[in-house]
Amino acid sequence: MLDHPTRDAGFAVYVHWPFCLAKCPYCDFNSHVRQTGIDEPRFASAFAREIAHAASLTPGRTVTSIFLGGGTPSLMKPETVGAVLDAIGAAWAVAPDAEVTLEANPTSVEAERFRGYRAAGVNRLSIGVQALNDADLSRLGRMHSVAEALAAVEIARKTFDRYSFDLIYARPNQSPQAWAAELREAIGHAAEHLSLYQLTIEPGTWFEKLHAAGRLTVPDPEAGRILYDLTQEVCQAAGMPAYEISNHARPGAESRHNLVYWRYGEYVGVGPGAHGRVVAPNGRIATATERHPETWLDRVEKHGHGLTEFTTLTSEEAADEFLLMGLRLREGIDPERYRAFAGRRLDSRRVSDLVGDGLIAGHLGSRIAVTPAGFPVLDAVVADLAA
């Protein structure tokens, strides 16, 4: 029996394909470049073994969404994707309307595979466009042009009922006028969903080195706030409001997979460096797998899984995660779910103070949601409520 605060939030499976053609200079994801070919049948077999092990820990669940992320999952052959999806279908019941998303890069070679992914069972594509400006694509280390990106989006439109793409803004020297024009162009190509991320300098990336050396500048917080506010204004006017701090969709077109994360449901993480949150009789479990692809492969072949972390969260840890994830959503959280995780209610005085400051709306007897004014300072709001 699942615990009450998790039961209705969904059960998702995340599969991590860790390989890329090149490492983007801003990226801190677990991605790796290999000059030699990847043994896809061997990896597919390992995925199947780890999926079976994960199913033994989570019996009786029904999968509501599957997400193949990376890395660059569109480097996989459609046959490999099909094998992974077949393994998931053999391990758990899969809802008839399950969302099955694959992340894709819009190079022309990968775009040609889209029809194969659809035949394999993928029903939603997430495309890493990142910019609609060739000069900025080059600076971001992307290996496609704007023309290739838009061609890939068009193929996705013809192949899938649902697709989304990503853009990065607050790029070096990006003006509000230029971003607004680019965003409006993007909305013209987006059927239902856009993910819009502010460029951040992540530790350990090439951009961090350039930034530290004074060779890369990004908008300061005030300029970044102007770009953020402009993003909300343009998308709202186009009928694609933010349902999460960085994600915009037409009503009903939200990413169901990511909603499982943000609503703090259960999700299994499979593949090198994947993370998960599953429910066991003794509580909520945080899982993580070996990050290095070949080491992960060896561990799975020897032990049936690549888990390096399997930790029971304390009630406070689970409650803090619930706040951190749920308050990213425009719909906010049910305070009763927080009480079920934490064993105590949110502090009514802190709630009242944040309502008075205009940073959250609602009260302890109803849903609590961060306001538009609160989203730019979300971390501080969460920290205040969790204290």
Which features characterize this protein?
16 helices, nine-stranded mixed sheet, 387 residues, 16 strands, alpha/beta, single chain, 23% strand
Can you tell me about this structure?
- It contains 16 helices and 16 strands.
- By secondary structure, the protein is of the alpha/beta class.
- Strands 9-10-8-7-6-5-4-1-11 form a nine-stranded mixed sheet, with helices on both faces. It has a three-stranded antiparallel sheet with strand order 12-13-14, with no helix packed on it.
- Strand 9 (242-244) and strand 10 (247-249) form a beta hairpin.
- The chain starts with a helix and ends with a helix.
- The mean pLDDT is 93.
In percent terms, what proportion of residues is strand?
Answer: 15-25%
* Average pLDDT reading: 93
Name the shape in a single word: globular
Q: What kind of sheet is the major sheet?
A: 9 strands, mixed
Distance between the termini: 30 Å
Q: What oligomeric assembly is this protein in?
A: single chain
Rg, Cα atoms, Å:
21 Å
From the helix content, strand content and strand pairing, which structural class follows?
A: alpha/beta
Enumerate the spans where pLDDT stays under 50 for 5 or more consecutive residues.
none
Total beta-strand segments: 16
Per DSSP, the total helix count is: 16
Helical amount: 40-55%
Strands of the biggest beta sheet: in what spatial order? 9-10-8-7-6-5-4-1-11
